[in-house]
């Protein structure tokens, strides 16, 4: 009876065509991740919202201040704001007066990223668009008084090198409807019916993103959220059904088990090949996803560390989603911009080893540490990315099978290099004696091997 009912709805909505995906995890999980996502390899995460106003601690400010009453957050409020000040009083200060969407998209594009993921609503419940389901707790009614999602989407679609992704939190910390459902042990579902699901449909139909990044289940199971029902609609009837990519955060127990690509945990980086497509979400600020005014230089990952994470992630079959947190007035602070632009400079030289690449038969060299492999299936080229320049100028690659007659080796950004085979497999590559100004980059260099196995 359930199958018949679902099929009837599908026939009604899309004429004589039968729904390809049913609202079960078995069916939803059978959908391949669209190819564009695997080819992209690198995206930018943007955590921006009312939490950007206090810009202290983390984007979980409201929860740690009033939910957990952490002493450092309580003290911060007592020292800087008058008695009776509430979290909603921050919203008018979320002004975004320096937010120029075209300029911001240019910065994101300069990083070499192929997609962005903007927070449209975090766990605080504030929507970055004028959602019909947010009452006045949104960026059109208060603060910027503009549709920030539309601003980004419009600016992005003037370009051909970036795809739009939207982040959306399923739950909200202090929403009375969610708290009531939680008290009822999720045997009632007032909140997802009245708030979460209407917002999701609204986002997809209005902005037509290529990626939907779901987050925050509030310990509620996927049945409470009707996740499989929504995903069946998304994959069968939505305006982005052919291209949309989704992640795995669709209810308690679904992460790393169900959905589209896997995120598993924040900063997930297994260090080995994972069969299912996955993504490493990494923030430049190691202690927060949102902007923090109290951050120290040591809290920020260096460009060298970020490049190493990108290389390792792609070698193991994943994508890197690198996070920045804009300020309450819409700025990308210089240290974030510097990191993004430097990533782009590295990718201009080494991008052929990253974009459209595939995992090779081994990921890191079995004998030489700090060497990671990728390959291009179309050309057959193998890429060996080494993270440190050897003092003797010799890079030993243990795993490639080479031929004196067929194999050619080049240092990307420089040119051909000399090499000699080792036994039973592998080769020694003699790097050119380059001056600092001749170096293609200051860290992480790529050898391209053609005619090797």
From TrEMBL:
Instruction: List its EC numbers.
Output: 3.2.1.51
Task: Identify the GO cellular component terms for this protein.
Answer: lysosome
Pfam families xrefs: Alpha_L_fucos (PF01120), Fucosidase_C (PF16757)
Kindly indicate where the leader peptide sits in this chain: 1-19
MF terms (GO), sorted A to Z: alpha-L-fucosidase activity
* Keyword terms, alphabetized: Glycoprotein, Glycosidase, Hydrolase, Signal
Biological processes, Gene Ontology terms: fucose metabolic process; glycoside catabolic process
Where is the site described as May be important for catalysis found in this chain? 281
According to the entry, every stretch annotated as the Glycoside hydrolase family 29 N-terminal domain falls at 20-352
Q: Which InterPro entries match?
A: FUC_metazoa-typ, Fucosidase_C, GH, Glyco_hydro_29, Glyco_hydro_29_CS, Glyco_hydro_29_N, Glyco_hydro_b
Catalytic activity annotated for this protein?
A: an alpha-L-fucoside + H2O = L-fucose + an alcohol; a neolactoside IV(2)-alpha-Fuc-nLc4Cer(d18:1(4E)) + H2O = a neolactoside nLc4Cer(d18:1(4E)) + L-fucose; a neolactoside IV(2)-alpha-Fuc-nLc4Cer(d18:0) + H2O = a neolactoside nLc4Cer(d18:0) + L-fucose
User: Ranges for the Alpha-L-fucosidase C-terminal domain?
Assistant: 363-450
Gene3D superfamilies (alphabetical): Glycosidases, Golgi alpha-mannosidase II
The protein's superkingdom reads Eukaryota
The UniProt subunit note reads as follows: Homotetramer.
Its biological purpose: Alpha-L-fucosidase is responsible for hydrolyzing the alpha-1,6-linked fucose joined to the reducing-end N-acetylglucosamine of the carbohydrate moieties of glycoproteins.
Q: Could you say which protein family the record assigns here?
A: Belongs to the glycosyl hydrolase 29 family.
- Protein's recorded name: Alpha-L-fucosidase
Source species, please? Answer: Danio rerio (Zebrafish)
């Amino acid at each position: 009876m359930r199958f018949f009912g679902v099929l009837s709805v599908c026939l009604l909505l899309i004429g004589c065509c039968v729904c390809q995906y049913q609202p079960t995890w078995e069916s939803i999980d059978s959908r391949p991740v669209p190819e564009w996502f695997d080819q992209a390899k690198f995206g930018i995460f943007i955590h921006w919202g009312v939490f950007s106003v206090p810009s202290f601690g983390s984007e979980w400010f409201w929860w740690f201040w009033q939910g957990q009453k952490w002493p450092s957050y309580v003290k911060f409020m007592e020292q800087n704001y008058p008695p009776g000040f509430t979290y909603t009083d921050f919203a008018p200060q979320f002004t975004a007066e320096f937010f120029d969407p075209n300029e911001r998209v240019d910065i994101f594009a300069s990083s070499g990223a192929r997609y962005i993921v903007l927070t449209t609503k975090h766990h605080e419940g504030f929507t970055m668009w004028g959602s019909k389901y947010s009452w006045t707790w949104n960026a059109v009614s208060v603060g910027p008084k503009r549709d920030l999602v539309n601003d980004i989407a419009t600016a992005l679609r003037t370009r051909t090198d970036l795809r739009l992704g939207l982040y959306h939190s399923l739950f909200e910390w202090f929403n009375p409807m969610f708290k009531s459902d939680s008290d009822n042990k999720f045997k009632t579902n007032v909140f997802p019916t009245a708030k979460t699901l209407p917002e999701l449909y609204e986002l997809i139909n209005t902005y037509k993103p290529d990626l939907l990044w779901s987050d925050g289940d509030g310990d509620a199971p996927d049945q409470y959220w009707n996740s499989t029902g929504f995903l069946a609609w998304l994959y069968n009837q939505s305006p982005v059904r052919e291209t949309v990519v989704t992640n795995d955060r669709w209810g308690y127990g679904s992460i790393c088990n169900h959905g589209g690509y896997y995120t598993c945990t924040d900063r997930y980086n297994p260090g080995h090949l994972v069969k299912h497509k996955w993504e490493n979400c990494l923030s430049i600020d190691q202690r927060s996803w949102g902007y923090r005014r109290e951050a120290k230089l040591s809290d920020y990952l260096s460009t060298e560390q970020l490049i190493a994470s990108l290389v390792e992630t792609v070698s193991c079959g994943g994508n890197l989603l690198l996070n920045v947190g804009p300020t309450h007035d819409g700025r990308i602070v210089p240290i974030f911009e510097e990191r993004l632009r430097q990533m782009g400079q590295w990718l201009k030289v080494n991008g052929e080893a990253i974009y459209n690449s595939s995992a090779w038969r081994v990921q890191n060299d079995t004998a030489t540490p700090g060497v990671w492999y990728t390959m291009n299936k179309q050309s057959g080229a193998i890429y060996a990315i080494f993270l440190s320049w050897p003092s003797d100028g010799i890079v030993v690659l243990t795993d490639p099978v080479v031929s004196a007659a067929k194999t050619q080796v080049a240092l990307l950004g420089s040119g051909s290099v000399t090499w000699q085979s080792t036994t039973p497999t592998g080769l020694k590559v003699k790097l050119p004696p380059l001056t600092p100004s001749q170096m293609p980059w200051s860290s992480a260099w790529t050898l391209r091997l053609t005619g090797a196995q």
